[in-house]
């Protein structure tokens, strides 16, 4: 009977260790992205619509695009209703999407060109969106909060 108990105990211990080995990679590090901590602009590319921001805990980077959006989505940190955007989308509202270290949803950067007289001219948004995302992720707590909190949201 004692051998049976030791056998079951050994099975329980090794199964737990095996399960942890399957779920956690060796030398994995978990970093909490804190929206209260500001960063510095690391760079942006308006042609490829990419941006990156450096924080004390590492780099955050992604892509930017302009889409039609709505008046309610103009505020920084608002999650976009249309999640089918890509870097080729055109419009008057600038959106940021984090791709590094993990993927987020599209979130409004707070930059839009709704104030211009001809809303069909979307070139200013496209030209400035990536640099705006880098600046706003570095300096705008509402945008960081929107990006970071949208990571684990289910559709």
Give a verbal description of the structure.
This protein is an alpha+beta fold. Helices cover 31% and strands 23% of the residues. It has three helices and five strands, in the order αβββββαα. The chain has a five-stranded antiparallel beta sheet with strand order 1-2-3-4-5. It is elongated.
Instruction: Give the helix/strand class.
Output: alpha+beta
- What radius of gyration results from the CA coordinates? 22 Å
Number of helices in the DSSP assignment: 3
What portion of residues belong to β-strands? 15-25%
Order of helices and strands: HEEEEEHH
Helix content: 25-40%
Query: Which overall shape is indicated by the principal axes computed on the Cα atoms?
Result: elongated
Give the neighbour order of strands across the main sheet. Answer: 1-2-3-4-5
End-to-end separation: 52 Å
Largest sheet: 5 strands, antiparallel
Strands, total number = 5
pLDDT averaged residue by residue: 81
Q: What are the low-pLDDT stretches, counting only 5+ consecutive residues below 50?
A: none
Write the layout of secondary structure elements.
Blueprint lengths: L1 H22 L16 E6 L4 E6 L2 E10 L25 E8 L6 E6 L10 H17 L1 H9 L6
Antiparallel strand pairs: 1-2, 2-3, 3-4, 4-5
List keywords for this structure.
31% helix; alpha+beta
Short description:
The protein is α+β, with helices and mostly antiparallel strands and 155 residues long. It has helices at residues 2-23, 123-139, 141-149, and strands at residues 40-45, 50-55, 58-67, 93-100, 107-112. The protein has a five-stranded antiparallel sheet with strand order 1-2-3-4-5.
